[in-house]
Specification:
3 domains, DNA-binding transcription factor activity, XRE family transcriptional regulator, 6 strands, 6-stranded mixed sheet, alpha+beta, transcription regulation, 425 residues, Beta-Lactamase, 434 Repressor (Amino-terminal Domain), TransReg_Diox_bact_type
Length: 425
C-alpha cells in the first residue's frame, strides 16, 4: 500500500497539469469518479495495483506519485528554513509544498545549498586572509612598497625646486619600489595559483600532512604490524610534499605504530563497541586517555578528532561535515579540549551543539596529558586531544562554534572578536 499521506494531492496536481477531468482519469484507472475524489483528498488508501494504473494514465512513474518530494529536496528546504528562522516558515508543511510545487521546491533547495556553500567559502577565505602567515607577509610587502611610491610621488609633485641629484635619486626609488610591487604581486599570484586543485588552500606542512592523511582515510593497516614508518613513507606517493611535511608525517606514523602496538585494532574495536568509554579503554590497555582518543580518532568511522599543544594551537585536525575546524588560528574557546588543557589528567565528557544553519549535536571526549620527554630540566610538554561523535541523546548541549571570526552566534560569553558573518549581514 502507498503510505504517503499526500499521495492523493500529488495525483490531483498531476491530473490538473495534464488538463484531465476527474471522470476521465477514473475511467482510465478503472474506478468510480467518487472513489477517485476520495483518493485525491487523501481520504482513501491506494493499492499498489491501482496506483500503477493511475500512474500509467497520468503518464508518469509510480515512484513520482508515491514518493513526491525527494528526501534531498526536503532536506534542502529545511536548510533554507533554518536560514530564515524569523520568517515564520511552515516547517510542518514542507512535504506538502514539495509535492505540490516540485519545481519551486527544487529551486529553493538548490539555492539554499548554494548559499551554504558560499558562506563556507567566505568563512574559509576570511579565516585564511586573517591567519595565513605567507599571505600576511606578502600583502604587507605590497602595501609597504605602495606607501613608499606614494610618498616619493608626493615629494616630486609638491616640490618644485628639487636638486637634480635628489630628483634622480627619487626617480631611482620610484623605479625600485615599482619593481618591488611587481615582484611581490607576482609572487602572491604565483602562490595562489601554483597549488594543485586538490590541495587548494594549503599553506603549511601541517596542512600538507593532514591532506595526505585524509586521502588515505587516516588509516595505515600495514602499521598495525611491524612496518617501519620511514619505509612506509618511501612506498607512498608523496610527490610535491615538502621536507617539513615529510618530517611531520614520519612523526605521526611513528606514534600511530606505537598506539597500534599498545592498543591492537580488533580488541580496541570490540571494547569500544561494548562500551564507548575512553576512560574504560584507557584502564583496560594501561595507557593515557589521550592515547585512546588518538586511536579512536584514526580507527573509527564518522568521527572528528583534534589535538592542540599548550599554546592552544591546533596540531591535528580531522573534521566532520557538520563540525568544521578552523584551518588557521584558534578554535572556539568553549571547546572542551581547552578546558582539558587547563586540567591535565582529568578527562572531560560533554554534549556540544555546533553553530550553523542546521545545528548538530555531538558527544565530545577530551583529555590532556603532561610529558617530560627530555627530563625535568627541559620542561614539560602538554598536549590535549578531543574526539567527536554525532549524538542523538537528550539534555541541553553546550553551544559552541568553529572560531570567533567565523562564528554566526550573535551572543557568546567567550567571544574575543566580532564575526565576519555578522558584519556581512
Amino acid at each position: 500500500m502507498a503510505r504517503r499521506s499526500l499521495l492523493g494531492s500529488r495525483i490531483r496536481e498531476r491530473r490538473g497539469l495534464l488538463g484531465l477531468r476527474q471522470a476521465e482519469l477514473a475511467r482510465a484507472a478503472g474506478v468510480s469518479a467518487s472513489y477517485l475524489n476520495l483518493i485525491e483528498h487523501n481520504r482513501r488508501r491506494v493499492s499498489e495495483d491501482l496506483l500503477d494504473r493511475i500512474a500509467h494514465a497520468l503518464g508518469t512513474e509510480t515512484a513520482a506519485l508515491s514518493e513526491g518530494g525527494e528526501a534531498r529536496v526536503i532536506d534542502g528546504l529545511r536548510l533554507a528554513a533554518a536560514g530564515g528562522a524569523e520568517s515564520g516558515t511552515e516547517i510542518d508543511r514542507l512535504e506538502e509544498f514539495a509535492g505540490r510545487f516540485p519545481g519551486w521546491a527544487g529551486l529553493l533547495a538548490s539555492q539554499a545549498r548554494q548559499v551554504q556553500g558560499l558562506e563556507r567559502a567566505v568563512e574559509t577565505l576570511t579565516d585564511r586572509l586573517a591567519h595565513d602567515p605567507y599571505l600576511s607577509t606578502a600583502l604587507h610587502e605590497v602595501l609597504s612598497a605602495i606607501t613608499s611610491i606614494r610618498t616619493t610621488a608626493e615629494i616630486l609633485a609638491e616640490t618644485e625646486d628639487i636638486d637634480p641629484a635628489w630628483r634622480s635619486r627619487f626617480h631611482g626609488n620610484l623605479r625600485s619600489d615599482s619593481e618591488r610591487v611587481a615582484h611581490a604581486a607576482e609572487a602572491l599570484v604565483d602562490y595562489l595559483d601554483s597549488v594543485p586543485e586538490e590541495r587548494t588552500g594549503l599553506a603549511s606542512p601541517q596542512e600538507e600532512v593532514e591532506n595526505w592523511l585524509e586521502g588515505r582515510g587516516y588509516r595505515f593497516p600495514s602499521l598495525e604490524g611491524d612496518e617501519d614508518p620511514a619505509r612506509l613513507l618511501e612506498a607512498r606517493d608523496l610527490t610535491g610534499v615538502s621536507a617539513s611535511a615529510r618530517l611531520l608525517a614520519e612523526r605521526h606514523l611513528a606514534r600511530y605504530r606505537e598506539d597500534a602496538r599498545l592498543m591492537p585494532e580488533h580488541p580496541f574495536r570490540a571494547l569500544w563497541a561494548e562500551a564507548p568509554d575512553p576512560t574504560r579503554l584507557a584502564a583496560r590497555f594501561g595507557v593515557p586517555t589521550t592515547a585512546v582518543l588518538r586511536r579512536a580518532g584514526v580507527l573509527l568511522e564518522t568521527v572528528g578528532f583534534v589535538m592542540c599543544d599548550a599554546s592552544g594551537t591546533l596540531t591535528f585536525r580531522r573534521p566532520l561535515p557538520d563540525f568544521p575546524l578552523p584551518r588557521f588560528g584558534a578554535g572556539c574557546p568553549l571547546w572542551p579540549i581547552y578546558r582539558a588543557l587547563s586540567r591535565p589528567g582529568e578527562p572531560i565528557s560533554a554534549r556540544v551543539e555546533m553553530a550553523g544553519r542546521s545545528p548538530r549535536v555531538f558527544r565530545v571526549w577530551a583529555a590532556a596529558e603532561r610529558r617530560w620527554p627530555d627530563g625535568f630540566a627541559a620542561g614539560e610538554v602538554v598536549e590535549a586531544a578531543m574526539l567527536l561523535l554525532p549524538d542523538e541523546g537528550s539534555g541541553p548541549p553546550l553551544p559552541v562554534g568553529t572560531g570567533c571570526r567565523i562564528c554566526p552566534r550573535a551572543f557568546c560569553i567567550a567571544r574575543r572578536e566580532p564575526s565576519i558573518l555578522t558584519q556581512l549581514t
